């Protein structure tokens, strides 16, 4: 047949060996999570994507539960926890992800709690909201809650009923003893103050219509809530626990709100218009409005305040905004319907 005696044997082995080496190298490269890194939830893909911020490339994708919305990362950068909201606010799990190994290491079943959403990491534990729960007094049937997941014990070890409708986002005051919750359907922000081992004192503060995006100023003196239903922002004084100003920002449906680390600027994503609205925090006035695309959602500002990542969910991308120039400098194609983001140091 004209086949060489040795060539017919060695060539397939050489090819197989080369392929094995290539696959090993590729796997090793894929398995290395950079620091720092951006983590982004793709809701329609049920996954967490890891982005190398130095190259703006996706270096990993990890499956999560159904329709993950928000994510928080531990201070040491090892663990991310995603809230699996579900298609109809009916999700009942958290996804605990080892960022070094790039894999889900626990699917936390929440039992009577469903619709987990906003989440933050404080003092070694993850605090998250849930829009539905059953059986927690004083709620007769269904009630929103603030909950705590302990990654060391691998369980939810604390729950407090909020008693409001659609408790959505949560932010924590420095020190982790006070939390502010945005209650979309109740038109309130709830201050939860931890008392003793497991106690909590709640204060409900009336805001504009449909508070959703929320953040605490770096000074800790003010909480700003972006009202999705009337295009305003309610400014809450943390000392008096009262709204001291209402700012008309002209949004169609405010989604997220974030202060820059120096406290000078406030960014608001407008789900309705696809704009990113930039405000001067001291003057409480608009300084710029950037047209990003279809359905602006999650916002993450890097720790040094130099840039912001904004999820443009309708266009399956994340835009990178230079906060000195106040302009988009790059876009990253992430996946299907990106939204919640976290930062690995």
Topology:
Blueprint: H1 7-30, E1 37-42, E2 47-52, E3 57-63, E4 68-73, E5 79-84, E6 93-98, E7 103-109, E8 113-122, E9 125-133, E10 145-150, E11 155-161, E12 167-172, E13 178-183, E14 188-195, E15 199-206, E16 211-216, E17 222-227, E18 232-237, E19 242-248, E20 254-259, E21 265-270, E22 275-280, E23 285-291, E24 296-301, E25 307-312, E26 317-322, E27 327-333, E28 338-344
Antiparallel strand pairs: 1-2, 1-28, 2-3, 4-5, 5-6, 6-7, 8-9, 9-10, 10-11, 12-13, 13-14, 14-15, 16-17, 17-18, 18-19, 20-21, 21-22, 22-23, 24-25, 25-26, 26-27
Task: State the order of secondary-structure elements, H for helix, E for strand.
Answer: HEEEEEEEEEEEEEEEEEEEEEEEEEEEE
**Helix-strand category:** mainly beta
Spatial sequence of strands, sheet with the most strands: 3-2-1-28
Specify the helix fraction band: under 10%
User: Which consecutive residue ranges, at least 5 long each, have pLDDT under 50?
Assistant: 1-29
Strand content: over 45%
């Amino acid at each position: 047949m004209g086949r060489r005696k040795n060539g017919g044997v060695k060539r397939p082995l050489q090819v197989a060996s080369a392929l094995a080496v290539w696959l090993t190298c590729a796997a090793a490269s894929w398995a290395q999570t950079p620091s720092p890194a951006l983590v982004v939830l793709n809701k329609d893909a049920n996954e967490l994507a890891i982005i190398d911020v130095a190259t703006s490339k996706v270096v990993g994708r990890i499956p999560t539960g159904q329709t993950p919305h928000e994510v928080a990362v531990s201070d040491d950068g090892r663990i991310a926890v995603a809230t699996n909201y579900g298609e109809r606010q009916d999700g009942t799990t958290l996804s605990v992800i080892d960022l070094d190994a790039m894999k889900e290491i626990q699917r936390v079943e929440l039992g009577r709690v469903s619709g987990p959403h906003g989440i933050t990491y404080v003092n070694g534990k993850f605090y998250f909201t849930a829009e539905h729960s059953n059986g927690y007094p004083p709620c007769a049937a269904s009630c929103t809650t603030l909950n705590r997941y302990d990654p060391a014990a691998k369980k939810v070890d604390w729950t407090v009923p909020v008693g409001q409708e659609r408790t959505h986002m949560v932010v924590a005051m420095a020190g982790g003893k006070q939390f502010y919750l945005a209650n979309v359907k109740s038109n309130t922000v709830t201050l939860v103050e931890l008392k003793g081992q497991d106690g909590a004192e709640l204060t409900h503060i009336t805001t504009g219509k449909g508070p959703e995006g929320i953040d605490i100023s770096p000074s800790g003196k003010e909480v700003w809530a972006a009202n999705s239903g009337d295009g305003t922002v309610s400014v809450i004084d943390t000392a008096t626990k009262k709204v001291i100003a209402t700012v008309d920002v002209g949004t169609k449906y405010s989604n997220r709100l974030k202060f820059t680390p120096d406290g000078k600027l406030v960014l608001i994503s407008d789900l309705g218009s696809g704009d990113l609205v930039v405000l001067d925090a001291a003057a409480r006035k608009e300084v710029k409005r950037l047209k990003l695309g279809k359905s602006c959602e999650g916002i993450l500002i890097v720790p040094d305040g130099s840039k912001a990542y904004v999820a443009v969910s309708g266009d399956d991308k994340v835009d990178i905004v230079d906060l000195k120039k106040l302009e988009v400098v790059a876009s990253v194609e992430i996946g299907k319907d990106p939204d919640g983001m976290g930062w690995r140091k």
